[in-house]
């Protein structure tokens, strides 16, 4: 499905180049394809989900790579729904989803990568981070007072948290991800880019829908007041941490079906590029299989 010409070209446009400046206003939150309407998009998504299921099977059998998919977004951008729909065809045995909340006191007694290290995918597995280590340069960027809870040497007050501090964190993240990729973990980073108007619409829908209002918190509206600060934080973070080994994709998220279609296409394209195959048995192993087959056939 990702080979569909128009979709493939669009995926190339939303992939962020290695360490290039990012201006989120230059990336659309809503797009319209010339040759893909919603009905066609849903067919392509179904095809993509089936393809992802096949790829997962080969990934598990190949057993040399692991895949880490990172989702970041403003509230109500559709992370949960995207994960649920796009990953619906995967074997639960080989895929895990981890949602990271406010760090606990125990987690704060370790470096900010520690809780993420604990749940990285093993070879042959796919792990999804619903929010991630990037919260430590996003939420904390907008609310630098949170950094003080980490008890970092030399950081005694908010005034100590300078641009140099954030640049150093970006360097740490690049180093962390480079180490993972050099050891066989494929990292796919997706930012769901939603508009402020659509976020407002979805917040109101959550409040009015009894099946969704458990997701809503008054704090979400408070955070909305920091919209521009978050946009700046995301732009700088994506620019500083999009690398050749672990690039970011800025996915338009105002229309959920388009976001899900793009996500499936991105994941399939990346995994397919690994050129994996099922293991090929040696002649000795094939001989043993024939002997086992012969024994089974001789059973009464």
Plain-language structure description:
The protein has helices at 5-14, 38-62, 79-86, 105-108, 114-117, 139-142, 163-182, 196-208, 218-224, 227-241, 256-272, 283-298; strands at residues 66-73, 95-99, 126-130, 185-193, 248-252. It is α/β, with parallel strands linked by helices and 300 residues long. It has a single domain (5-298), classed as Rossmann fold, CATH 3.40.50.300. Strands 2-3-1-4-5 form a 5-stranded parallel β-sheet, with helices on both faces.
Number of domain modules: 1
Low-confidence stretches: none
| Terminal residue distance | 48 Å
Beta content comes to 5-15%
Care to count the β-strands?
5
Helix count, per DSSP?
12
Order of the strands making up the biggest sheet: 2-3-1-4-5
Instruction: Give the overall pLDDT as a whole number.
Output: 95
Residue share in helix: 40-55%
> What order do the SSEs take from the amino end to the carboxyl end, as H and E?
HHEHEHHEHHEHHHEHH
CATH topology: Rossmann fold
Main sheet: strands, sense, barrel = 5 strands, parallel
* Helix vs. strand class: alpha/beta
The CATH class, by name, is Alpha Beta
The fourth-level CATH homologous superfamily is P-loop containing nucleotide triphosphate hydrolases
Query: Any guess at the CATH architecture?
Result: 3-Layer(aba) Sandwich
Shape designation:
globular
Radius of gyration: 22 Å
